[in-house]
Amino acid sequence: WDGAMPIPKSYEEPICWLPMRWDNSSGGQVFVDSDRWGPWKGAPLFLSYGKCLLYGVLMDSVDGVVQAAMVPFGLKFPSGIMRARFSPQDGQLYVAGLKGWQTAATRDGGFYRVRYTGKPVEMVVKAHAATNGISLTFSTALDPASAADLENYAVELWNYRYSGNYGSPELSVKNPKAAVHDKLTVKGVRLSSDHKSVDLLIDGMEPADQFSVRYSVKAANGDELRSEVIGTIHRLGPALAEAAR
In sequence order, which residues have a C-beta less than 8 Å from that of residue 121 and are 6 or more positions away? Predict the structure, then answer.
């Protein structure tokens, strides 16, 4: 920078931020254009070269403002993944692997296939932030008692600092000078009639660079579902119905 141009004070925000523990060096994206990938047909996938992980992208829009959340597939690759493509022959995902700088890889490289087996998918496939909570939709029905237990969810918000530095501390949304997460209390849960969606009723919701929902619930068949959803809230949607059960 030679001083001829003013230093920018804003930027075009991404649809979703990610913390360093999820990705420190991106490996690209790909849309699921295969009919053989079950509930993920039409959705984007995100690859982490640095963490050797694959994520599903949960697109959302409020008043025309696009934002997203992400969920891990639970697959740990031996090398950083990139250059993802769906094969027109078998409809499955193929990715190239590499080990180099700033990566958690254990092998120099690889060529991997990620195949949908047709078995039940037990993941969050939709996330939506509202003025009074967060709605999560699963690909499978949940056990009602487990889904209704408030102790099975943990919600946090935080922001990042826009600067010329490499990276940022994770900062409180409510107190920007504090390098802490804002822990929010889930005060109620509303389960949909098909038992696939939960509305988490939460006080203190605000637009934030990052939200996190950790959950530990059971599927209707008894399987344990334990994971995390990470997302960005540019704009909050209308309030969720308050009738929790």
Answer: 38, 39, 40, 139, 140
